[in-house]
Amino acid sequence: MTTDLDDAPLHEPRLWRDQGWTAQIIKNEDDEGWAVAMFKAGESEPALVGPWTMGRDKKNPKPLDTAAFNTLVKTASEVIRRHEQQLHAQLNKALYVARDGAWLKISLEIVPAEDDPYAWLRAHDAAGEPLAQHKVAAGFRLTQAAAEAWVDSGFERPAGRD
Predict the structure, then answer these.
(1) Does residue 68 sit in helix, strand or coil?
(2) What DSSP element (H or E) covers 75?
(3) 2-19 residue pLDDT tens
(4) How many structural domains is the chain composed of?
């Protein structure tokens, strides 16, 4: 449970919380150095872990400051954005089939439900109007040949699918 205290900005040498992010400097167990972990508010796993600079005494970490924190927020946000783009690409595929002088968009959207994952196979015309939709197995392989066969069948439910 998040409280207002958990959201309040905190600026300590080894722990900063602001802008929905927490940066925590931690001892790097693999060597003599330090690391920084960036957590997005509400997440238990860090979005980013990276090396952290030693301080002038060469024993303790350099303290966090506004510039470093802002850079870490930007970098961690980019990591999350790239991860989301990669996940979207894994779960969504689209290709085009030309028939009767028109382009049809055929798409597959995988719904990664924990108990029973499935996918939506859809066809849209060039104006984006839906032409057909079928629920298929999450493992359905949308290839150019499969898309063309589906269009040529008049959008019949693909055989052997949910």
Answers:
(1) helix
(2) helix 66-91
(3) 444 567 899 999 999 999
(4) 2
